[in-house]
């Protein structure tokens, strides 16, 4: 799969896309990054998406043979075009049983907007425990609820770059080379997982 393409096709959060297909898509594109060596520390990746506690997607990708290309993306959209609250869990495995690192986000898709969300699996979060409602992000426990209004609009180049220095040395898993840092965030924005987030409204 080419690096410009998504990890997998965007998945509807219900059975079929409604008749309003000409309207701007209500979607979130998840950008996946890691600093873990492949296949040594990362043997497979899983992505689970739920809506109101109901599973809407389950995906898994082996990393040892024909590894998944990272950086990569995965899209989730609302078939009705309306705002939809979802939970996304990204997991990294060394074996096929128990994940050694997870990243969880609760986020609401905003009607008519395609937004970009970064989710990274990093060494600093391996076997890292956080209290309920918080998850490990680059070694720190942060709220699993993400305000969609702080997310940038999706642009393909966002998925392929580290926009700012958040302290983690992300890699291109196909080569093991460290990804360069493109720059820094504009004033008022916050750098997390190599992505610039807008200030809360």
Explain the overall architecture.
By secondary structure, this protein is mainly beta. The protein has a single domain, classed as Immunoglobulin-like. The chain has one helix and twelve strands. The chain has a four-stranded mixed β-sheet. A hairpin with a 2-residue loop joins strand 9 (134-137) and strand 10. The longest helix has 5 residues, at 156-160. The relative contact order is 0.20.
Could you give a short description of this structure?
The chain is an all-beta fold and 201 residues long.
How far do the termini sit from each other?
Answer: 38 Å
| Name of the level-1 CATH class | Mainly Beta
Structural class: mainly beta
| Largest sheet features | 4 strands, mixed
Keywords:
Immunoglobulin-like, 12 strands, four-stranded antiparallel beta sheet, disordered N terminus, mainly beta, four-stranded mixed beta sheet, 2% helix
Write the layout of secondary structure elements.
Elements: E1 8-12, E2 27-34, E3 44-51, E4 54-62, E5 72-77, E6 84-93, E7 99-109, E8 114-121, E9 134-137, E10 140-143, H1 156-160, E11 190-192, E12 195-197
Parallel strand pairs: 1-5, 2-8
Antiparallel strand pairs: 2-5, 3-4, 3-6, 6-7, 9-10, 11-12
